[in-house]
């Protein structure tokens, strides 16, 4: 509010208050009052005598109201002026300005079938420490494990319902342990994911352990796990956005076969004190089977991994140290130059197996 407008408002308020203040009655008023009192003592009541005190009482109440509103009006006017200058101080989104908070109030429903198109384009907002998912379709996705919703279990191919439930539950634990567990994400040993895998599955667990000890191009833990180098980057907040679906059927080995397809979005910032935020988008397709230990060499309540595939948006190309390396707009690209096509990492309608295997660029993060 300009200073001259504020000063005029204060002067006008003071004048109103002084005008409403009680005043000492004049000599004439005192004489009239005394005469009326004496007439009343003698029993002489002039016509309409009760109306004068009523008018005086009404005048007193009106004066008090004016004084009250004059006092209340100052802070109210200040509040109105402040809100006019900065409407964002009001809670919620009363003016429909389309802020990220307003969009987040309407989360997407569960994904039950494969999408037929990528998510619609968003306003090109820059992610920040306070709004790390600004400008991202993931803003309306579920948070973390809440985005991994299990389908309703039913008996299938002679396999009882409770065994199907176990297979779905274990698959969810594997996805959480490999992509959402804080220890895994910050590059530590993924104990939660390893605890779900069948140690009797030939070579698989041994190969995974070998990739964790000495990663290289042929032994990459990123094939199954999402890991960032804690010396370079850290997550912004504790929310990882998740969206996908899970299906099941009778497997080729007479067990419960589960197919999972999920995308995870990670907002990160450098550990050098920078406040610039970027995002890495990881999509994983996973096929596992829960075998019957009575018929196969298998550990009870452990999963066999049959197939896994990944598609990572925004990481350095041809770096095989076992970590994802997000690229920041203000920094020079690291790793090898991208040679693959430009893709939308949020497009869950495409088959990630259709790629040519080359490291490409992303149209958005």
Walk me through this protein's architecture.
The chain is an alpha+beta fold. It has eight helices and eight strands, in the order H-H-H-H-E-H-H-H-H-E-E-E-E-E-E-E. The strands form two sheets. Strands 1, 2, 3, 4, 5 and 6 form a six-stranded antiparallel beta sheet that branches. A hairpin with a 5-residue loop joins strand 3 (241-250) and strand 4 (256-270). Helix 1 (3-20) runs antiparallel to helix 3 (51-85). Mean pLDDT is 84; it is low at 47-58 and 97-104.
Give the arrangement of secondary structure elements.
Elements: H1 3-20, H2 27-41, H3 51-85, H4 100-104, E1 142-143, H5 161-179, H6 182-185, H7 191-194, H8 204-213, E2 233-235, E3 241-250, E4 256-270, E5 277-290, E6 304-313, E7 342-343, E8 361-362
Write out key terms for the chains shown.
365 residues; alpha+beta; six-stranded antiparallel beta sheet; two-stranded parallel ribbon
Fraction of residues in helix:
25-40%
In percent, how much strand structure appears in the residues?
Answer: 15-25%
Give the low-pLDDT segments.
47-58, 97-104
Radius of gyration: 36 Å
Termini, distance in Å? 40 Å
Q: How many individual helices? A: 8
User: How would you classify the helix and strand content by structural class?
Assistant: alpha+beta
Q: Tally the beta strands.
A: 8
Order of helices and strands: HHHHEHHHHEEEEEEE
Sum this structure up briefly.
With 365 residues, the chain is of the alpha+beta class. The chain has eight helices and eight strands.
């Amino acid at each position: 509010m300009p200073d001259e407008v504020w000063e005029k408002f204060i002067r006008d308020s003071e004048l109103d208050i002084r005008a409403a203040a009680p005043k000492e009655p004049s000599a004439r008023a005192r004489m009239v009052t005394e005469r009326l009192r004496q007439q009343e003592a003698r029993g002489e009541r002039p016509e309409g005598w009760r109306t004068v005190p009523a008018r005086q009482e009404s005048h007193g109440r009106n004066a008090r109201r004016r004084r009250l509103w004059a006092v209340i009006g100052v802070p109210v006017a200040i509040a109105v002026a402040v809100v006019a200058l900065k409407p964002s101080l009001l809670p919620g989104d009363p003016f429909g300005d389309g802020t990220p908070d307003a969009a987040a109030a309407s989360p997407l429903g569960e994904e039950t079938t494969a999408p037929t198109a990528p998510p619609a384009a968003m306003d090109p907002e820059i992610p920040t420490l306070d709004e790390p998912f600004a400008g991202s379709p993931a803003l309306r996705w579920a948070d973390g494990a809440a985005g991994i919703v299990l389908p309703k279990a039913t008996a299938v191919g002679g396999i009882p319902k409770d065994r199907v439930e176990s297979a779905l539950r274990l698959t969810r634990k594997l996805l959480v342990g490999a992509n959402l567990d804080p220890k895994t994400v910050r590059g530590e040993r993924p104990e939660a994911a390893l605890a779900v895998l069948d140690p009797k599955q030939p070579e698989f667990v041994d190969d995974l352990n070998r990739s964790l000890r000495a990663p290289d191009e042929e032994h990459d833990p990123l094939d199954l796990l999402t890991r960032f180098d804690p010396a370079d980057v850290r997550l912004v907040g504790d929310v990882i956005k998740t969206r996908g679906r899970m299906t099941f059927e009778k497997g080729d080995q007479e067990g419960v076969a589960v197919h999972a397809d999920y995308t995870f979005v990670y907002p990160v910032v450098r550990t050098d004190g920078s406040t610039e935020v970027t995002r890495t988008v990881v999509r994983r397709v996973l096929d596992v089977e829960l075998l019957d230990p009575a018929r196969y060499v298998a550990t009870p309540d452990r999963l066999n991994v049959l197939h896994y595939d990944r598609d990572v948006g925004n990481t350095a190309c041809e770096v095989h140290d076992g970590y994802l390396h997000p690229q920041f707009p203000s920094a020079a690209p690291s790793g090898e130059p991208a040679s693959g096509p430009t893709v939308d990492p949020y497009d869950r309608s495409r088959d990630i197996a259709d790629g040519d295997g080359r490291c490409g660029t992303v149209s958005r993060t």
